[in-house]
Specification:
Layout: E1 5-11, E2 14-22, E3 28-38, E4 44-48, E5 51-55, E6 59-65, E7 72-82, E8 85-96, E9 99-111
Antiparallel strand pairs: 1-2, 2-3, 3-4, 3-5, 6-7, 7-8, 8-9
């Protein structure tokens, strides 16, 4: 498959990279979100790298964490097909001991 696009965000101590690729079925997309911890010396450590397979127009969610949702990574992805490409909206929340350490939302338009 062809990578449609890569998006990156940064927030104190964290960086995210999101890739969008066509899925196995038509109107389906695989969204991979890589969440990295960035140390003060610039070294990165991947905290989580979940993949969400979504159909165009439907929101997909994935949670990597504990049952009470006090600790973990919470991601959503919504991909809409538009003429000549896709519009994608992703959110990433990282919680530690019930406190949000990272909360980011991103909207991007990618051309095929």
């Amino acid at each position: 498959g062809v990578i449609l696009g890569v998006c990156m965000t940064a927030q104190a101590g964290y960086r995210t990279e999101t890739t969008f690729t066509p899925g196995a079925e038509s109107h389906q997309y695989v969204v991979q979100i890589k969440i990295m911890d960035v140390a003060k010396d610039g070294k990165t450590d991947v905290l989580s790298s979940p993949k969400i397979t979504v159909k165009a127009g439907e929101e997909g969610k994935i949670t990597v964490g504990d049952e009470k949702e006090q600790n973990g990574v919470f991601c959503t992805a919504l991909v809409k097909e538009i003429e000549g490409g896709i519009e994608a909206v992703t959110t990433v929340v990282v919680k530690e001991k019930g406190t949000e350490k990272l909360s980011t939302a991103q909207s991007v338009t990618l051309k095929k």
